[in-house]
Amino acid sequence: MSTSGTTPSAPEGWREDNQAMWDERVPVHVGGEFYDLDGFRARPDVLRDFEKDEVGDVTGKTLLHLQCHIGTDTLSWAHRGAARVVGLDFSVPAVEAARSLAADLGHGPERAAFVTGDVYDAARLVPEPSYDIVYTGLGALCWLPDIRRWARTAASLVAPGGFLYLAEFHPITDALDDATGSRVVRDYFARDAQVWEEPGTYADQNAATVHNRSVQWQHTLGDVVSALAGAGLRIEFLHEHDVSLFPRFENFEVQGDYHRFPAGHPRIPLIYSLRATKG
């Protein structure tokens, strides 16, 4: 049986460890090639094709980006016509970097605002009570122990007639072997916190870092969908994609802007996306 509905464990100090880890990595991300902020300033749009298609035209709309990091995705939505974007992140250096990047692009706080704070406290921290679009990008949910609390918070910020859009790495990938993605080697339904000690960062694996302890959680697809439905949103669609943004498995090949299994390898979902509406 699954463990759906249970509250995962959260080891003492998890929030402080995660924040210290992310704070330290912001300068690496700002100055490195992975985010290529000079290139972003020249062409401020890093959104994935399926996100653009599934979110649709944002012209004249308000958008809230939860767990925005340094704001590149947030500001991409502004570039695509959103009337006002707001980003929230718990890392002070990340928010400072996002504000600086917005200023470089000529966006004042009335067009692009960034707020520091815990995502669970977003409803009392962001400047408006609701938004046409609440957006959460890839690699965000694994940092949150309580997916139902997150869903209630996110849903409360969606304006009537608006929607939440989520794109996230598919949880099935965490159950498979790292070499080929062909064998189940981990418990898909595991709810215990996963504690990691890893130097460097996905943006620069060789970066010298000190704060290397992080705590993460796995949330099944069923848990995420059920949490959003339980928070009063109507699931409009759930799509699964056979591409990834990084070499999740050792046998991946680069194909265009994405990483994929080699030709002939059985495919599995690597990313999922969903849209959930209110009212």
UniProtKB/TrEMBL annotation:
Q: Which GO terms describe its biological process?
A: methylation
The domain of life is Bacteria
Recall the GO molecular function terms of this protein's record.
methyltransferase activity
Origin species, per record, is Streptomyces filipinensis
Please state what the protein is called.
Methyltransferase
Q: Does the keyword Methyltransferase apply?
A: yes
| Protein keywords | Methyltransferase, Transferase
Taking every annotated instance into account, which residue ranges of this chain make up the domain Methyltransferase type? 64-164
Per the record's keyword annotation, is Methyltransferase included, yes or no?
yes
Any matching Pfam family: Methyltransf_12
